[in-house]
Amino acid sequence: MFIRKQQVFLLLTFTVCVGVIIVINTQHMNLIFQTEVHQRGFIRYVNNSIKTSYMPNKIHYVCAGTTGRLGNQLYVFASSYGIAKRSGMKLVVGLNPDTLSQTFQIEGAFETDWGLCEASKFINANKCCQVANQVYKVRLNSTVHIFGYLQSYKYFTEYNEEIRKYLTFKDPILRTAKTKLNTLLTKKYGKNYRNRTLIGIHIRRGDYLRKGKQQFGYKVPSEDYFYKAQQYMEKRYKNITYLACSNDIIWTKNTFRGQRDVIVVPTGSAAVDLALLSLLHHMIMSVGTYGFWAAWFINGTTVYYKNFTLPNSDFAREFDKDKLDAIPPHWIGF
């Protein structure tokens, strides 16, 4: 069959799990991809125009799309980075929304051309917070698209130092966080705060108190947990100032009312407040991915709430028996 020199357009549409529209101009060999992926609540839209040829591509990729808010997106990036490195593959991340690239100096950590993932094979990490063997080290000799929340530090812990280089806060965010922290401490102590031991307290309540989440198995710590965590820190450190970040400011103020050395941080953007917490020395967590990443950035002593799932609940079954895939062994549980 002969093909004339006029432009020829080929339209292919797949509508089950992946919808791909490809327009081919045979004169200039330009491909335009628009990809929409639906699976388990993950939706990716990536538009790219690239020049290509029909030369076989021997490079294989680990493809991952970000989802959720900042804490979830950090997990997807860090875990898929570790999986790609361990498997000797390159990483492609579909940034939508592009919170990571706006927050961190992450350029060069991955490709963003979703066209590289066109012929990928799908692999599911079925449990949010357990290591999936089929994902931990990909053994397929092809490009793979990983679905899942990938919320285990074990996916990436051996590459922490590389990941920390990419997860450097952008200068405007870091400057804003430093100014906010300095203002809070100066208001509290004047200029004599330089010798303080700064400990972050992250308190997530809000959506965790909704009926649906409670039925699924989410739990939040009581005041007693935070008091015990403070007692532990005060046995180890002196001249402590606690900086409490929360999505429930009223509850937080009531809980720490009367404690002179607790500063309740006014709510700012997720990126700025995470950067502020990263400047501290140690961490008291409550629940949620945001608290995990605050502790990871601080990299000091971390106290965590160990009873954060209702026993025998659907949420509890997302974790391994002792939650060792989700909680680093050197963290202190109360």
UniProtKB/TrEMBL annotation:
One record GO biological process: carbohydrate metabolic process
Record key words, sorted: Glycoprotein, Glycosyltransferase, Golgi apparatus, Membrane, Signal-anchor, Transferase, Transmembrane, Transmembrane helix
Cellular compartments annotated: Golgi apparatus, Golgi stack membrane
Organism: Patella caerulea
Family from the record: Belongs to the glycosyltransferase 11 family.
Record-given protein name: L-Fucosyltransferase
PANTHER family xref list: GALACTOSIDE 2-L-FUCOSYLTRANSFERASE (PTHR11927), L-FUCOSYLTRANSFERASE (PTHR11927:SF9)
Cellular compartments per GO CC: Golgi cisterna membrane
Pfam family name, one: Glyco_transf_11
Pathway field: Protein modification; protein glycosylation
Leading EC class: transferase
Enzyme Commission number(s): 2.4.1.-
This protein's record includes keyword Oxidoreductase: no
Topology term for the membrane: Single-pass type II membrane protein
InterPro entries in the record: Glyco_trans_11
Residue ranges of the TM segments: 7-24
